[in-house]
TrEMBL record:
Source organism: Pseudoneobacillus rhizosphaerae
NCBIfam families per record: PRK07231.1
Top-level lineage group: Bacteria
Keyword list, A-Z: Oxidoreductase
This protein's name: Glucose 1-dehydrogenase 2
Lineage, opening ranks: Bacteria, Bacillati, Bacillota, Bacilli, Bacillales
GO terms for biological process, alphabetical: bile acid metabolic process
One GO molecular-function entry: glucose 1-dehydrogenase [NAD(P)+] activity
Enzyme class: oxidoreductase
Protein family: Belongs to the short-chain dehydrogenases/reductases (SDR) family.
Coiled-coil residue windows: none
Amino acid sequence: MPFSNKVVIVTGASNGIGREIASTYAKKGAKVVLADIDEETGMKITSKIKENGGNAIFVKTDVKKEEDVNRLIYVTTSTYDTIHILINNAGKGIFKSPYELTLEEWDDVINTNLRSVFLCSREAAKVMRENKVGGAIVNIASTRAFMSEPSSEAYAATKGGIISLTHALASSFTEDRITVNAISPGWIETGDYSQLRVVDHEQHLSKRVGNPADIARACLYLTAEDNNFVTGTNITIDGGMTRKMIYEE
């Protein structure tokens, strides 16, 4: 398997997209480090991966805190010696009128979603550059980076920042053979998929709402060694929604 014995860190791995990404890499033979602030759920997911024959550990991590990120890297390298792949997936959203959004709420979203990408990438890259094959970083952004809805200012700002940070890091890390790319998911249903309506699916060009596996497969593509020509870019995975023209009748 192409990811056999690769060491992969996935932040925000306890739920939703992150959970699927971590499980997918484990199925591909990788050694997976699940990082999340939700320890109870994270430990359950880690145990399930192991029960299915995977190799994984959980590290409780608040990704907006430098000391927690440093500990994540230390535990990873102490356990598995190195790092090959980092998936910066951790994030949170707040949808509140800009008239009411507090500075504390703004800072919390900015630090959780954007500062964490810088912190985790910086520290993981220090380890990756010592590998003969370099490494790969994937940052999970959002279609909200380039299309908006009311009361999404903090979330949108972080996702737009992630895309800009992605190509900046790709440029900075190029001599160390580290690729850096972003994925912008559209509607990815992490709840009960069976409860979606026909109209939910039909409004997509793909004729279906996305699911976490769609994002996990993209991560595999962007982190495969033979895809190292792909760097500094953002891939939109949204079932065609941001390219769809809508007419009022």
